[in-house]
Amino acid sequence: MHEISQVTVLSGRKAQGFKKNVLKHLKNKQNLIIKKVDFDVSNFRNGELNIRLLGSVRGCNSIIFQQFTQPGNSMHEELFELFLLEDTISRSAADCIILCLPFIPYLRQDRKAEGREPISARTLFDLLSSAASGKLVRIITFDMHNSAEQGFVNFPIDNLPAMPVFAKYFIKQKWFDPETTTVLAPDVGGAKMAEEFASCLGLFDGISIMHKKRKKGEMAEAKTIIGDVAGKDVIIIDDIIDSGGTILASVDMLKKDGAKSINVAATHGIFSADAVKNFSKAGINVVTTDSIPRDADFIKSNSWLNVLSIADYVAEVIYENAIGGSVSKVIKARQSSVNCESVSESKQIPLI
Q: What CA–CA distances, in Å, run from 249 to 208, 283, 318?
């Protein structure tokens, strides 16, 4: 029998709603006591942040939730708010710190593609570690841009896949049929993610891959599709939608090649620049998670967008960490649950 564990939880201002949803799922968990800690935050006249905790965290295992507004420069204030929260908790004699960051910015630049460039992902992890003064012991996140970035830190990162969440959603759609559905990777680098997603959905055929050429900046030109998509219901899977240029280029090519319908699933929906306007015109269904905070009006005014909650998923992972359990067990259980639904709702067809 597990010993009773106690954790303190607090969050940055943008993550208050997400934290509340997660705590709903932790409310009646056995062997776990949750202590909520609030803080005051204000700005000096020049914009600098001032933070003060309103409760004790001495000797506690502390979890900090933070989300980052996208797009916009407020993301950088939210990052600095996180750094100050870590520093405050560390200086208040907390035993250890766990960060729950469903989306982590600055991870797309994980190597020097050309000379005289930073490795932004490494720099961000260094800042997160140093702000906690050695007390940061774990990060919980979803679909990092490159899972190899976990090597930038000396503590575990629970890099959770959102695929089971998406798979459950699509299996319940009336149009879903494993015999006529295919998964498209928007580029060669996304082929592995697409293969895993297709397997999660219980699809028969292999995946399709978009071969593209990146022109300037974020602009991408779709060249050709590797795989048969004619007459198929296509699901494009990716980790991030930013400006949407790559995805929309793929959509145009799929339409030319005779795809029956097109859906997009991306863990992190940033929707910068003209992405919202362009997706509204594209006539496709986009599914993302609530890893990035969106107000109800934004979701309501964009009927093409479906936002799925990952709060219960995060709650399970926090609970397993708190009681010394297994995060892998949580991921496998969700994948198994999806596979069972796939079999029962897909004419009892065996999985690949």
A: 15, 14, 38
pTM above 0.85, yes or no: yes
Hey, which residues are catalytic here? Answer: 212
**Which helix (H) or strand (E) element contains residue 191?**
helix 191-201
The structural domain count of the chain equals 2
* Shared-domain flag, residues 64 and 168: no
pLDDT tens-digit map of 66-97: 999 987 778 999 999 999 999 999 999 999 99
Last residue within a domain, chosen from 98, 132, 160: 160
Strands 39-43 and 49-53: antiparallel
Return d(Cα 19, Cα 309) in angstroms, integer. Answer: 12
Q: Is 39 left (phi over 0), alpha (psi -120 to 50) or beta?
A: beta
Residue 135 has φ and ψ, to the nearest 5°, of: -95, 0
> Can you give the residue range of the structural domain that contains 154?
5-160
CA 146 → CA 49, 118, 193, 267, distances in Å? 32, 16, 11, 13
111, burial (CB in 10 Å: exposed 0-12, middle 13-18, buried 19+): exposed
